[in-house]
Specification:
Blueprint lengths: L4 E8 L3 H16 L6 E5 L4 H7 L5 H8 L3 E6 L3 H4 L11 H9 L4 E7 L12 H4 L3 E7 L11 E5 L2 E5 L6 H16 L4 E6 L5 H14 L6 E6 H10 L6 E4 L1 H15 L6 E5 L5 E5 L16 H13 L4 H16 L17 H10 L3
Parallel strand pairs: 1-2, 1-3, 3-12, 5-10, 8-9, 8-10
Antiparallel strand pairs: 4-5, 4-11, 6-7, 11-12
Helix pairs in contact: 1-11, 1-12, 1-13, 7-8, 9-10, 11-12, 12-13
Bound molecules: nicotinamide-adenine-dinucleotide.
Nicotinamide-adenine-dinucleotide (NAD) binds next to loops.
């Protein structure tokens, strides 16, 4: 018998625990028929960890994650910590940055698919969103979010602040390789997004992606400037297959892309490094405005559990079973409040999870 897979669950703050609980129930329901055994260890992270331990991410939590097969993550942050101490070094979000850097999770994969049942209620016209199926690969451990110097300082004319965008050839190369490999498993098209007309880091990005692309002659490579891509993503989203981009651009563009899928609460993500260890989380935040009400959309977290099965546990059948069950629940007309149509009462987080559990075949 194979040993159980070790899953570290980090629910975090706000709606994090609610959607993570739903995802875990669905994960269990899909794992059992696939003969997969899962061992869970749960720990505090983000604001919950600040309250209990004074830091957003304890070293032992990071060590625990290093020994895991996969991490199921909720969301971190909230006004209690963000607004109370905007200058504080102890910020809930630093937990995520610490995990990404500490586990070297340099590629963030964000699949954007528009479920057929959601086409009619999209903010865009049906013909624009039907059959959208793209995968954004966002660089996750470099660029403006991590590079130094990064600080605020006093000048004779008031305060000034600096952030730094730095990228090296190996950093770009490894995420580009990941993106080209994924393109090979899909429709063999890769679009690299940068700002090469202005930024030096983007000119290096384009040079390196072009060079890596020469090793993948079967993949068609294109380059678009980020402003043009932001427009094309709404004008002709079906044209894209794999999109690779740097950290900040990827962060912004995937929130835009979430509107194709219906809402922020619908989209999953996977953060991967060189091996199979991955961190799986919905792309949304802790949604403090609806936390504790039981109305959060758990689909982004549930689809993240499907990605966990696919990319860390190598179980495509179980991953697809979850994706089919989500489609069934949507086709049956179930909607949480964020995606509700006017004519039907929305369901709660747990009712949506129950329906998806029931739809696992
Ligand atoms: N990965 C993360 O942990 C992460 C990501 C983004 C923001 N945050 C943090 O979350 C907090 C709130 O940030 P924000 O308000 O800018 O973004 P958010 O994603 O938490 O919420 C934006 C809006 O979308 C709604 N929403 C988000 N997810 C939803 C879901 N699953 N179901 C229904 N509605 C949903 C919220 O109610 C809110 O109106 C901040 O502290 C921020 O730093 C954390």
């Amino acid at each position: 018998m194979t040993s159980p897979a070790r899953i570290v669950v980090l629910p975090g703050d706000g709606i994090g625990p609610e959607v993570t609980d739903a995802a875990r129930r669905v994960l269990d329901a899909a794992a059992a028929p696939a003969g997969l055994q899962l061992d869970y260890v749960t720990d505090l992270v983000g604001g919950a960890s600040v309250d209990a331990h004074g830091v957003a991410l304890r070293p032992q939590t990071l060590r625990l994650c290093k020994t895991a097969d996969a991490i199921l993550f909720g969301a971190v942050g909230g006004p209690r910590w963000d607004d109370a101490a905007p200058q504080s070094a102890v910020r809930p979000g630093s937990a995520l940055l610490g995990l990404r850097k500490g586990l070297e999770l340099f590629a963030n994969l964000r699949p954007v698919r528009v479920d057929p049942a959601m086409v009619a209620t999209s903010a865009l016209r049906p013909e624009r969103v039907r059959d959208v199926d793209l995968l954004v690969v966002r660089e996750l451990t470099g660029g403006l979010y991590f590079s130094k110097p990064k600080r605020r300082y006093d000048t004779p004319r008031g305060q000034a602040a600096v952030d730094t965008m730095r990228y090296s050839t190996p950093e770009i190369e490894r995420v580009a390789v990941r993106a080209f490999e994924l393109a090979r498993q899909r429709r063999r098209r890769l679009c690299s997004v940068d700002k090469a007309n202005v930024l030096e880091t983007s000119r290096l990005w384009r040079t390196v992606v072009t060079a890596v692309g020469q090793r993948y002659p079967d993949v068609t490579t294109t380059h678009l400037l980020v402003d043009a891509f932001a427009m094309e993503l709404l004008r002709r989203p079906q044209a894209f297959d794999v999109v690779v981009t740097e950290n900040l651009f990827g962060d912004i563009l995937t929130d835009e892309a979430s509107m194709l899928a219906g809402a922020l609460g619908m989209l999953p993500s996977a953060s991967l490094g060189g091996g199979t260890l991955g961190l799986y989380e919905p792309i949304h935040g802790s949604a403090p405005d609806i936390a504790g009400k039981g109305i959060a959309n758990p689909i982004g977290a549930i689809l993240s559990a499907a990605l966990l099965l696919r990319w860390s546990l190598n179980n495509e059948d179980a991953a697809q079973a979850i994706e089919r069950a989500v489609s069934r629940a949507l086709a049956a007309g179930l909607r949480t409040a964020d995606i509700a149509a006017d004519d039907r009462a929305p369901v709660s987080t747990s009712e949506m999870a129950d329906a998806i559990v029931g739809g696992i075949d």
